[in-house]
Amino acid sequence: MPGRATKYTLPGWVQKSFLRQTPSKVLNLNLFRNSQYVVFSLDLYRNKLYPTPIMKGTHQEKETQRNHRRFFLVNGLTYLAGTLFGLNFFSMAEANEKSIWTLAHPRGQGMSFSTQAPRIALIIDDIGYSVPRAQAFLSLKMPMTFSILPQLRHSKDLAEEITEKGHEVMLHQPMEPYGSESHPGPGAVYISYGNRKIEETIAENLSQIPQATGVNNHMGSKFTSCSTKVVPALKIIKKKDLFFVDSLTSRHSQAYKMARRLNMRTAPRNVFLDHVPDIRAVRRQLVHLKQHALKHGAAIGIGHPHLSTLTALRKFKQELDETAPWVELVSISDLL
């Protein structure tokens, strides 16, 4: 199939048939054409049939194709049973929600059903240094959350502008990293601080960005690995009724675990988009992010205001609109 999805308008009898058999708004149809396996996505919101391009190239993509073929028979028999015996294997969706039946699964894992479309939340860190760069990301006109560093020249103004344009704002709280050569910047907290100073520092940073709905850590590989210091930081965030996203700058981070123990709204980062600030590398990371969302129902990606990230996100949005319109881009708070 061509790389660009082609849209097909469905005949009326096909619309009625599918609407009668399933309340789901998006359904994967599996067909054979000239001995080639093809996946179509039926979007009943738009009355369009989207042929999914055949994936090729990487081992992971080939594995996805094999999984699709493996579940083709199960999918067909399930739908046939629903047609013949009036059984409904599709979960009811809310009137304002999109639904998808997930078909691709890694080896050894069972099939799962989701009543809501896969969702992706994008967080752009390190906002506050450059107004033009932040505005460039705003020009993408796609849902994303901007995490603002405190006590920088443009922090307050950008928080206001971003909020006025309908985007969510977070505090990008600087925390102590490993290595004395890396300075987290103004407003940072350190493990040498007492609990009271930790709370006062974070409270002061939040007072400068009152639009913030949550917090994530800037650097912090050392600080987040120390649970006795993470807890007072999280407590002041919880006291302000905000959520916390663990950027996972260290595999030893205790922040997400401690936040769960405190019954906070919290989540860990799933994919760093631009650890390697190269367009091709960022695009590969966005593919991983999408695959995580398709597998688990949701994914959180963190990027930075690099030109490569901007370019890759623009292309990513176009590809989603053309080949996977059921995947939703949302603000981070929508996942918490």
Explained architecture:
This protein folds into two domains: 1-117, no CATH class; 119-335, TIM Barrel. Helix content is 37%, strand content 20%. It is built from nine helices and 13 strands. The strands form two sheets. Strands 5, 6, 7, 8, 9, 10, 11, 12 and 13 form a nine-stranded parallel sheet that branches. A four-stranded antiparallel sheet has the order 1-4-3-2, with helices on one face. The protein is globular, with a radius of gyration of 22 Å.
How many independent structural domains? 2
Number of strands: 13
Beta fraction = 15-25%
Number of helices: 9
Describe the global form. Answer: globular
In a nutshell, what does this entry contain?
This protein is of the alpha/beta class. Helix content is 37%, strand content 20%.
Properties at a glance:
336 residues; alpha/beta; 2 domains; 4-stranded antiparallel beta sheet; 13 strands; disordered N terminus
